[in-house]
Amino acid sequence: MTCYKLSRRRDLFAFPYPLTVWRDPPRSVEVVRDFVESYDIRHIYTVGDVVTRNFLEYGLAPTSVAVDEKTRRGIKVEGLGLYKRVIRVNNPPGYITEEAWAAVEEAVEGGVLIKVDGEEDMLSLAFIKLAPPRSVVAYGHYLGALVAIPVDWYRDSILRLFNYLEQCQQKA
Fold first, then answer.
1. 33 located within any domain
2. Is 147 a known ligand-binding residue?
3. What's the confidence (pLDDT) of residue 4?
4. Which of 27, 55, 65, 72 shows the smallest number of beta carbons within 10 Å?
5. Could you tell me if residue 34 is inside a domain?
6. 44, 60 Cβ separation under 8 angstroms
7. Residue 90 falls within a domain, yes or no?
8. Which run of H or of E encompasses 26?
9. What 8-state DSSP symbol labels residue 82?
């Protein structure tokens, strides 16, 4: 099993990696849809309530999603019944716990809703590392942009962020 804790250089994790769309929905989702269609992307994974809601609302259903059901805007995500399997995990802020990592391992197969008690933000890294070829991982940037990572192009570069995480010990 794998567990990581953000220990330093939090600033690197706030960087808006490509493809960053500084448009409100539905336009932001349309940009990602165009990208997905143009590059024959087969899998889309969303991390975060607002991004997941926008993708579902504007007709771009993700393969699997991770949400914590808490947003600064008080938004409720509709349409989560689309996902056949629900996995509940504990994941404190700044962590990717063993159980969250295991949930992402299942989620990359498709049809999974990960409900996080804590914070889901760091799970984007697990999705980027574990996603199959022709995948995009999408999440919201704290300044309001939609970030979509085509993993085939950026996986190696983004995985260097693991150098700034420390492995954590958890009780089984």
1. no
2. no
3. 82
4. 72
5. no
6. yes
7. yes
8. none
9. G
Q: Report the DSSP beta bridge partners of residue 115.
A: 67, 88
- Residue 159's SS3 state is helix
Is 70 annotated to bind a ligand? Reply is yes
Ligand-binding site membership of 34 (annotated): no
151 with 131: CB under 8 angstroms? yes
Average confidence (pLDDT) over 62-91:
91
Residue-level pLDDT at 1: 55
User: What domain range includes position 45?
Assistant: 4-8+41-161
Phi, psi for residue 137 in degrees, rounded to 5: -110, 125
Q: What is the pLDDT of residues 3-60, one digit of tens each?
A: 888 877 666 666 556 788 999 999 999 999 999 999 999 999 999 999 999 999 999 9
Q: Is the distance from CB of 103 to CB of 112 less than 8 angstroms?
A: yes
CA distance 125 to 103: 13
Whether residue 49 is annotated as binding a ligand: the answer is yes
pLDDT at 14 (0 to 100): 60
Q: Is 5 annotated as a binding residue?
A: no
- Residue 35 domain-assigned (yes or no): no
